[in-house]
Amino acid sequence: MKIEGKDCRALWLENSIVKFIDQRKLPYKLEIFSAKTVDDVAFAIKDMVVRGAPAIGAAAVYGMALGKKDLQKTAEKLRATRPTAYDLFYAIEYMIEQITNGKDEFDAATKYVEDIVQRCKKIGEYGEKLIKNGMKILTHCNAGALATVDYGTALAPFRVAYRKGKDFFVYVDETRPRCQGLLTAWELHQEGIKHAVIADNAAGYFMKNGEIDLVITGADRIAKNGDFANKIGTYEKAVLAKENDIPFYVAAPVSTFDNSIEDGSKIIIEERGRSELAEINGKKVMPDWTTVKNPAFDVTPKAYVAGYITEEGIIKNKYV
Amino acid sequence: MKIEGKDCRALWLENSIVKFIDQRKLPYKLEIFSAKTVDDVAFAIKDMVVRGAPAIGAAAVYGMALGKKDLQKTAEKLRATRPTAYDLFYAIEYMIEQITNGKDEFDAATKYVEDIVQRCKKIGEYGEKLIKNGMKILTHCNAGALATVDYGTALAPFRVAYRKGKDFFVYVDETRPRCQGLLTAWELHQEGIKHAVIADNAAGYFMKNGEIDLVITGADRIAKNGDFANKIGTYEKAVLAKENDIPFYVAAPVSTFDNSIEDGSKIIIEERGRSELAEINGKKVMPDWTTVKNPAFDVTPKAYVAGYITEEGIIKNKYV
After folding, report:
1. Which residue, A202, A132, A115, is CA-closest to B178?
2. CATH of domain B129-316
3. Above pLDDT 70, what percent of chain A?
4. Residues 6+ apart with CB under 8 A from B76
């Protein structure tokens, strides 16, 4: 991704130090967090200096490389950071295997990270074909380079299309409660891609007025039948897209397909705390007596999906 | 409406002083703004101490009563406060006519205000019939007593049902950008009605999970064919309600029907400023470089409406 005009990543290795774009400070300030030890890396994951499953996996492989001397203890520390992150555990196991088999720890880590980046780039190359000059495209939440080391998933097609010289405009849902749309806006702003943030309430208005031609979002988990879980509000946008005959695409690596889940009804949705809705960046935006309900994700049935943009190509949804 | 357990209104007359619930302070603090002069009343309207077309009309009739001695000058001052408010002009003309015809100014003002309150009460009585024990009901924005002197429009059925002893639960959309859902939450909290505020993104989730049985919103303007304009996001909720077979009702006095407008396509939507989205209560929630688009209202086609709850009864929409 471009940051202040230069090529950059969400995290990278530099002289045996793991450098992170500090996502706790975004979109307000660009700061680099330097992790010199395994403890620093564990802190970065736990405190959300880095977020997004693929980027957390990348942090873990670098952490394992730094802590090679006591592999089991390193693994233990890293596993304890975000106990529900699948990529984290996968990355740790991968490094244990590589190092145990005598592979160089930094080579192994680099290979893991480059693999993530290449998959995202491929998603961008396939997805780019959907973007025509003059299009207006909606995205929800942040499925960007910040979450995936580089390119992003939903944002990868935008990057590739822009770098090929295509002219298009992105509508960015604010994505309450956590306002991750602002991270997307920050990435697009850095890249130079034309965009505007809108209230989540306004997406339907723009769709109905013919001002949105395409929707691309990410996915947290895709069931065997194509139903998928993603940030709360994704289902709303998918229903509105269908009602207005706008194609809705999901961009995700094939590893997001979880064949152990038959359909979306089996996906359990996390209800999160009150403060996510009642505060923005630590500032109160609701009075103390306010009662809230805060589901963090929703499930969108496959019937609303035009296709899945993966690193192996676009899987058209025959049900649409 | 109930406030701190007592019967109250958004504004009232007390010893020739117009008292307002200061809506600039809500939902954080309950403060009374006292207007002793026409200038005070004009300030209250202009500075949004009072908001909502019917409540502004009520403020205007009280203002005219206070400034009876120089009717034309009073009318001029009040007309200049909110130049697009239809109820404001209507209320001023009404008072000029009444006073010119020798009617007592306070009697005339009281009659006007009681008429508004009675219409809202009637809306509540008709709408209450739609509410069954155990129902979960969604509302959007604030079509409450604060905007209409007492009862509200969309909130009137909740008040009447609650006072009859019905047991139900209200989901309140936050209603970004201006978060008027918090005013609704404040009214329900004061009344004792069970409710929770949700992110605008979450309404679809609850609908799909069978947790919403009914939707009631207000309307700013209803075209001859039944299409209606209301706060941004109303269209989204209406589409989602239809998709999930949930009846969607609009509560509004018959004066909201504007027969001079054939259909919704003739309603012009105001795009409002950046700060509404980028700030909440004067606190920045987006960085300075953020570009936004901020339509304030949307139009919902009649096909999504189950019926219109008015003071003359419920008009079922034959198109649904």
Report:
1. A202
2. 3.40.50.10470
3. 99
4. none
What is the predicted pLDDT for the residue at B78?
97
Where would I find the H helices in A50-131?
Answer: 53-66, 71-79, 86-100, 105-128
Q: A280-319 in b/e burial notation, b at 16+ Cβ within 10 A?
A: beeeebbeeebebbbbbbbbbbbebbbbbbbbeebbebee
pTM: 0.94
Dist. CA A215–CA A207, nearest whole Å: 10
Name the residue type at position A10. A
**Residues A155-166: what's their mean pLDDT?**
98
The matching CATH number, chosen from 3.40.50.2000, 2.160.20.80, 1.20.120.420, 3.40.50.10300, for A2-120 is 1.20.120.420
Q: Is B203 helix (H, G, I), strand (E, B) or coil?
A: helix
Q: Which residues of A touch B290 (CB under 8 A)?
A: 27, 182, 185, 189, 197
State the Cα–Cα distance between residues B243 and B227, nearest whole angstrom: 18
β-bridge pairing B297-300 and B228-231: antiparallel
Cβ of B205 within 8 Å of Cβ of A269? The answer is yes
- What are the distances in angstroms from CA A206 to CA A34, A85, B182, B226? 42, 35, 25, 21
pLDDT digits (tens, 9 = 90+) for A70-102: 999 999 999 999 877 778 999 999 999 999 999
Q: Could you check whether B2-120 and B129-316 share the same CATH topology?
A: no
pLDDT of the residue at B319:
56
**In B, which residues are within 8 Å of A202 by CB distance?**
232-233, 293-295, 298
* A 238-257 → B contacts, CB under 8 A: 239-240, 243
pLDDT digits (tens, 9 = 90+) for A197-232: 999 999 999 999 999 999 999 999 999 999 999 999
CA distances from A212 to A245, B161, B184, B199 (A): 10, 41, 31, 23
Neighbouring CB atoms inside 10 A of B205's CB total 25
Strand ranges inside B65-148, DSSP E: 136-139
| Cα–Cα nearest to B59, from B68, B51, B69 | B51
- pLDDT at position B69 is 95
Every domain of chain A and the residues it spans: 2-120, 129-316
ipTM of the complex: 0.94
Indicate if the pLDDT at residue A282 is higher than 90.
no
Low pLDDT (below 70) residues in chain B:
319-320
Of A203, A281, A293, the CB nearest to B198: A293
**Tell me, what's the pLDDT at A126?**
98
Which has the closest alpha carbon to B288: A28, A23, A195? A28
Query: Between the CA of residue A180 and those of A81, A139, A298, B47, what are the distances in Å?
Result: 21, 11, 16, 33
Q: Is A220 a catalytic residue?
A: yes
B-chain residues near A280 (CB < 8 A): 280, 283, 285
Preceding amide of A157 cis, omega within 30:
no
